[in-house]
Amino acid sequence: MSSQGQAAAPLARGDADDGAGGGTKAAAHFVFVPLNERGHLIPAVDTALLLATHGAVCTIVGPPSTTSKVRQTVESAQQSGLPVRLVDFPLDYAAAGLPEGADYADRIEGTYMMNYYRAVGLLRAPIERYLRAHDPYPTCIIADIFNPWTTELAAGLGVPRLSFFSICAFTILCQHNLERFNAYDGVEDPNAPVVVPGIERKVVVTRAQAPGFLRGIPIPDWVELADYIERARAEADGVVMNTVLEMEPEYVAGYAEARGMNVWTVGPVSLYHHGAATLASRGDSAPAIGAAECLRWLDGKEPGSVVYVSFGSIAQAGPKQLLELALGLEASGHPFIWVVRNAGGYDEAVRGSLAELEARVAGRGLLVRGWAPQAAILSHAAVGGFVSHCGWNSTLEAIAAGLPLVTWPHFTDQFLNEKMAVEVLGIGVSVGVKEPLTFQASNKETLVGRGVVEKAVRDIMGGGEEAERRRQRARELAAKARAAVQEGGSSHANLLDLVKRFGKGAAAAPSDKSSAAS
Q: For residue 440, is pLDDT > 90?
């Protein structure tokens, strides 16, 4: 179900061959321009695949460093007959002042971040030339909010542009209201509590936790980028959001009203994948551990007994924190799968300690050094909880799997996502981190002790009425999430509405704020 406001631009071009063979007529052709970072990329590609299942042609574009991460997933969809295409465009490193071969999420240093965004922005012209030269002609651009240059791409093609958000409505609305109502005016202490204005629930944050979109991060030019992104967001023809309407209806409606534009909730988009094979390939063609090996290990564990631990593709624990986490997991007594990012980057002493831990917990603990098939792991019956950094992609995957969370936010939207999990949805237990740990000017480390880790894991995995209430609430949310993507559900209806609304020759959307799908 979508909340309506500003109408999408009418489309004037006629039908064209959908390019998938057979000369059929395409109802719509969505061009996805995702961000390289996996938390943005994976749900964007899943959304493209879902739209393709409903008759739309979907073309995913980006530099090779982006397309390579999802090529296996897209090729699998193509083999099943879906009209989805993946087209890569090489970056002009020299023109953007970017080191040869630099890649945002994998290898680039923070000092070159803006150069990377400039290099990606230079793809506008070659992408437009490609889209003009290949049928069918696009009917809509769906772009990650970190690609504001797609405003010019859509204008050049004469088609509408939708912003893609891999963040929940609660978090986006809180961020928006904190800035819109100048909530931090006169508040000098970055750790002073401030009530988020404009929403019924009392939500308390600090400037350190929610400084504003791309604010408070000591990377040159990010404020300028944030302003550019904000202008592009304000000019969009609507928003596509990976969330579930029934999970946060007041916040979806609140954001639609605050922005005065349509919001289509289409999540959880990870539920496009029904089997372990496609789940395992999401976001990486060569994970550090194969899905089959992981699932065999889990098959030997009792239902709901294993805790999964991962802090996503960016955050990385310092050496002291890594060891405290290791000892806390060991002391909890629960079987665990722990994804250790960039394990080879730690010194020899830390690597030795991890090896010693593996020996002590052999058979009970599985350490994955690199990318893991997360969604496949979370969907296994043996997994009973998730220690997470609270990236929304991970949080929603946990919700779809019906799992409670230990919340351990590190930066940006993750503190508000934590509040969503703990305070709004009632499925999380916080380790108590109050300040961001990543993308900060100083190397200050907020150490979460082994005892806190042990207790938090026991709180979500153990017995007692409170733990059972969290699990029951998680199961209820999972049922809502699955109903939303099935025929007759809100997300399913919104996908159909997008295909119809942005198809060739579609009429302009109505300008009221009534629901667009039911």
A: no
- Closest by Cα among 310, 313, 319 to 351: 319
Contact between 404 and 428 (Cβ < 8 Å): yes
CA distances (Å), origin 511, targets 28, 154, 261, 266, 515: 21, 21, 9, 21, 11
Q: Does residue 471 belong to any structural domain of this protein?
A: no
Do 242 and 356 lie in one domain? The reply is no
Distances from the Cα of 298 to the Cαs of 279, 307, 365, in angstroms? 16, 11, 11
3 state SS for 436-456: CCCCCCCCCCCCCCHHHHHHH
pLDDT of residue 436: 80
CA distance 88 to 468: 47
The answer on pLDDT for 511 being more than 60 is no
Q: Which two tokens stand for residue 288?
A: 């550090």
Of 171, 167, 173, 195, the C-alpha closest to 183 is 195
First to last CA, the chain: 6
Using DSSP's 3-state secondary structure scheme, residue 399 falls into helix
d(CA 304, CA 336): 11
Provide the domain count of the chain. 2
pLDDT band of residue 316 (cuts 50, 70, 90) is confident
Contact 515, 173 (CB under 8 A): no
Q: Mean pLDDT check: name the lowest of 365-369, 488-492, 513-517.
A: 513-517
pTM of the shown model = 0.88
384-401 burial by CB neighbour count: b if 16+ within 10 A, else e?
bbbbbbbbbbbbbbbbbb
CB 490 within 8 A of CB 484: yes
pLDDT per residue as tens digits for the range 191-229: 999 999 999 999 999 998 998 777 766 666 778 888 899
DSSP 344: G
DSSP-derived secondary structure for 7-62: PPPP------B-SSSS-PBPSBEEEEE--SSHHHHHHHHHHHHHHHHTT-EEEEEE
Is residue 149 within 8 A of residue 124, CB to CB? The reply is yes
pLDDT > 80? residue 111: no
Q: Which of 346, 313, 383, 280 is nearest to 107 (CA)?
A: 313
Give me the domain span that covers residue 400. 283-462
Give the CATH number, domain containing residue 347: 3.40.50.2000
